[in-house]
């Protein structure tokens, strides 16, 4: 997890918020298609975008998140994978 954590919150990065590397992150497991948490792909998110507030992934759910922000968890995962390459 430490390798992906260094990129900061992927949603903040997508929104081009400055100093994202300085904010603490939480690991979000993308279990959109079912399966075990341990096998799920992960993305780093700040607490606000992960579980706090009414626009966080855990508040909105998968479909609500995509509708509200205009992109999905999978889109953020693809962006992370691009950065890892």
Written description of the protein model:
The model has no long low-confidence stretch (mean pLDDT 85). By secondary structure, the protein is of the alpha+beta class. The protein contains five helices and two strands. Strands 1-2 form a two-stranded antiparallel ribbon.
List the helices and strands and how they pair.
Elements (H helix, E strand, L loop, with lengths): L1 H4 L4 H5 L10 E5 L12 E5 H4 L6 H13 L3 H12 L1
Antiparallel strand pairs: 1-2
* SSE run: HHEEHHH
* Helix proportion range: 40-55%
Number of beta-strand segments:
2
Structural class: alpha+beta
For the termini, the CA-CA separation is 16 Å
Major β-sheet, in short? 2 strands, antiparallel
Shape: globular
Number of helices: 5
Average per-residue pLDDT, rounded, comes to 85
pLDDT < 50 stretches: none
What's the assembly state of these chains? single chain
């Amino acid at each position: 997890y430490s390798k992906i954590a260094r990129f900061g919150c992927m949603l903040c990065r997508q929104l081009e918020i400055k100093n994202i590397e300085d904010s603490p992150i939480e690991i979000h497991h993308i279990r959109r298609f079912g399966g075990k948490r341990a096998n799920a792909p992960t993305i780093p998110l700040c607490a606000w975008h992960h579980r706090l507030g009414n626009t966080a992934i855990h508040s909105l759910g998968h479909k609500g998140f995509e509708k509200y922000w205009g992109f999905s968890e999978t889109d953020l995962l693809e962006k992370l994978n691009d950065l890892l390459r």
